[in-house]
Amino acid sequence: MRQTLLIAHLTVKCWLKQPFPLFAMMLFPILLLGITYLGLKPLLQDKQWVEPFAVAIVDEDKTFETKLLMKQYEESEELQNVLTFEKTDAAAASTRLAANEVAGIVIVPDGFTRGIRRGNNIPVTVIGNPERPFQAELLKQVMVSNANLISSAQSGANAAFHYLRKMGLSSEEFATYRETIITDFTLQALNRNKIYETETLSAFGGITMLEFYSLSGVLILLLIGGLFGMSLTARSEQTALRERLTLQGVRSGVFFFSNILSVFALLVIQSIILISLFYSVTKMWSLTATVILLAYCLAVSSIFALIQELFQRNGAKWGAGIILMMSMAATSGSVLPLSYLPEMWRNVSFLNVVHHAHSGLVESLFVGNQIWTPVIVLLSISVAIWALGLLLITIKKRLPWSGQLPLHV
């Protein structure tokens, strides 16, 4: 044990002599988180999946009903989150469209209100901006939806007219009711105050998407940190140190556990940074979560120490580490919930340390269950990896073609 701690100490001292790779490893998670946040910021903010854009509207009818309709559009909070209507004339609207200042033009033709009263379909002209295809298509869908709603309002008004005629009203009374019904039905139909539906999925176990992927980001970044830690322990300086100490009688198992301790220490420091970022977002953490994360760091460092013993060439170590890391992230249920994954992937997730750590942290932080099962499972996996690593070292010692230096017996 003393030799293991001493070699781990020497390993860290070698890292500090060339601190740039070490600092790059520490700062990489923050840089990656910053880039990811900038890319996903519109999705993480409520109803900001598209930037609001301007639409020019030309009212050629200029009736009380169309003015009331324009005011309704302008005051709609839901519409303002996606688009804004700017009233103007046809010439100014065309100029702004040519200058790419608006996503489209909506022209309400003369006689539009009269057509609604008489049951005639007088179409509204919608001109999209070809320079903004997505926004133009969204505007088109909004106006098509409104047209369908107006048709529904006309059907409702016709049904009301049918019953009013059966009541035997006079012409003056019928005309008064007709005006009121047309206005009420049309404005009521267009006053949905909804552009899109918001639905909360239960695939994230009752927590928000931000909370779910914040945890996933912490665990996956620590997994990436383990890969970088393995590369630090496989540098030429470390190889030379191992060769010299091997000639002095230090056993390979000591190097195996010293690599685990060295990478574990790096992951603990990295965890402090990531926990701080996670807490700033969710305002949640606990003692149980800390123990789970420490057990996870130990398991990750053990996995990459085993890969380092399994392969001789650095290229093979990197390739195996990247493949393993991607496989673990894909089958853990941290990138996509397990309910979305194929049945076969769900069956192998019980071997995945990321899965156990993620589910344990979710239970501890967001469900409130202070369970220790994930800690026991992660520690058991670490012990199994240690046994496998020692077995691998024993096999390599007895293989003359393994390229390993003679060991002191």
TrEMBL record:
Locations listed in the record: Cell membrane
Name of one Pfam family that matches: ABC2_membrane_3
Transmembrane segments: 20-40, 212-233, 254-279, 285-307, 319-341, 371-395
Residues of the ABC-2 type transporter transmembrane domain: 22-391
One cellular-component annotation, GO: plasma membrane
Gene3D superfamilies, per the entry: abc type-2 transporter like domain
Gene Ontology molecular function terms on file: ABC-type transporter activity
InterPro entries, per the entry: ABC-2_transporter_component (IPR051449), ABC2_TM (IPR013525)
Domain of life: Bacteria
Membrane topology designation: Multi-pass membrane protein
Keyword vocabulary terms for this entry: Cell membrane, Membrane, Transmembrane, Transmembrane helix
Main subcellular localisation: membrane
Name of the protein described by the UniProt record: ABC-2 type transporter transmembrane domain-containing protein
Protein species of origin: Fictibacillus phosphorivorans
Record lineage: Bacteria, Bacillati, Bacillota, Bacilli, Bacillales
